[in-house]
Write a structure and sequence with these properties.
The N terminus is likely disordered. This protein is globular. Strand 5 and strand 6 form a beta hairpin. The strands form two sheets. A five-stranded mixed beta sheet has the order 1-3-8-5-6, with no helix packed on it. It has a four-stranded antiparallel beta sheet with strand order 2-9-4-7. It is mostly beta strands and 168 residues long. Helices cover 6% and strands 38% of the residues.
């Protein structure tokens, strides 16, 4: 039986953006960054200051999209390497610090929530259903933690569907 890990050979991401810096974010306050994913390199995105604690009152927005040249059959895959944010409220609503993933571009009418995560609980894998994955990181003015680091890459949706069907 094949596992989702075998998808890593399909394609890796390249990030390109205006400005300088690495995939590790240095956002503080309001911050927005766009990343274009190709099928050549796998890259990492992390919280500000990672692995040191992120700052209070941080608001980061990242748009990850597959390279248009790959065509419509490629989606974004995210896998976590490390995840430690402030715990959520009593009902795990992630009211304090959170990392939120939306499927689609960052327009309210086009994106839908894939998941909102806090504490140390996160999914093994996150897939977009199309070319765009919108990521939002928020921290409040209280407790901070180490933060997060995740890998992302472009994968062919047909292979993802085949692997998922074969795993059942």
């Amino acid at each position: 039986m094949r596992s989702a890990a075998s998808l890593e050979i399909l394609g890796l991401l390249v990030i390109s953006w205006a400005g300088s810096g690495l995939a590790q974010s240095g956002c503080n306050g309001n911050y927005s960054q766009n990343y274009t994913a190709s099928s050549h390199h796998r890259l990492v995105l992390s919280s500000p200051n990672y692995p040191r604690p992120y700052d209070d009152l941080t608001d980061c927005l990242w748009m990850i999209q597959t390279d248009f040249a790959l065509g419509p059959d490629f989606i974004v895959k995210v896998t976590f390497d490390d995840f430690q944010l402030e715990d959520g409220s009593v009902f795990l609503a992630c009211d304090f610090d959170s990392l939120t993933f939306y499927d689609g571009p960052p327009a309210e009418s086009y994106s839908h929530l894939l998941g909102k995560y806090c504490g140390t609980i996160h999914p093994d894998v996150i897939y977009s259903t199309g070319r765009y994955l919108y990521v939002k990181f928020d921290s409040d003015g209280m407790t901070t933690r180490r933060g997060f680091r995740f890998y992302y890459q472009a994968v062919n949706i047909g292979v993802v569907i085949s692997v998922l069907l074969c795993s059942y």
